[in-house]
Amino acid sequence: MHTNASFDYAVLRVVPRVERGEFINVGVILLCREKRFLGAKVHVDEQRLRALWPQLDLDAIREHIEAVNRICTGDESAGPIAKLSQSERFHWLTSPRSTVMQTSPVHTGLCTETEALLDRLYHQLVG
Fold first, then answer.
1. What is the mean pLDDT of residues 49-73?
2. How buried is residue 16: exposed, middle or buried, by Cβ count under 10 Å (0-12/13-18/19+)?
3. Which pLDDT value is given to residue 18?
4. Domain count, the chain
5. What is the dihedral of CA 122, 116, 40, 14, to 10 degrees?
6. In this structure, what are the phi and psi dihedrals at residue 14, rounded to the nearest 5 degrees?
7. Which end of the chain is more exposed for a tag (fewer CB within 10 A), N or C?
8. 11: which strand partners?
């Protein structure tokens, strides 16, 4: 039997010109403490980003996304942040920043299947 568990998620955004407030959603970060799940699903449409912001440093965007994925999985190559608990890593990833990569406010809900939820949120908010 599947039981409901609470979850938190945030949308990962590319914000090339912070002062303008324009952004494109590129991914979702999901935490479900009860199911011990922290994951991200990210895809950057480089052609779309280049069309809107030709000067954007896509290498930096790719590096940031790779770091998000490594932090979510607890990969030690991501540095000391990756050694924190899942909850601490999620809160570190979703803390407000004034950089090109930002997250939305954190939202909450109930779920039974974390992988399916991550896919659904990704398709609704990014895809």
1. 92
2. middle
3. 79
4. 1
5. 0
6. -100, 125
7. N
8. 28
Q: Fill in the amino acid letter for 55.
A: Q
In terms of Cβ atoms closer than 10 Å to its own Cβ (0-12, 13-18, 19+), residue 3 is exposed
Q: Residue 9 corresponds to which tokens in the numbers above? A: 């998620």
- Dihedral sign from CA coordinates of 4, 91, 77, 11: positive
The rounded distance, in Å, linking the Cα atoms of 74 and 57 is: 26
Residue 50: which H helix or E strand, with range?
helix 46-52
Decide if pLDDT at 98 tops 80. no
Q: Which domain holds residue 56?
A: 5-125
Please tell me the distance from the alpha carbon of residue 98 to that of residue 59, in angstroms, as a whole number. Answer: 19
The answer to whether the CB of 101 falls within 8 A of the CB of 64 is yes
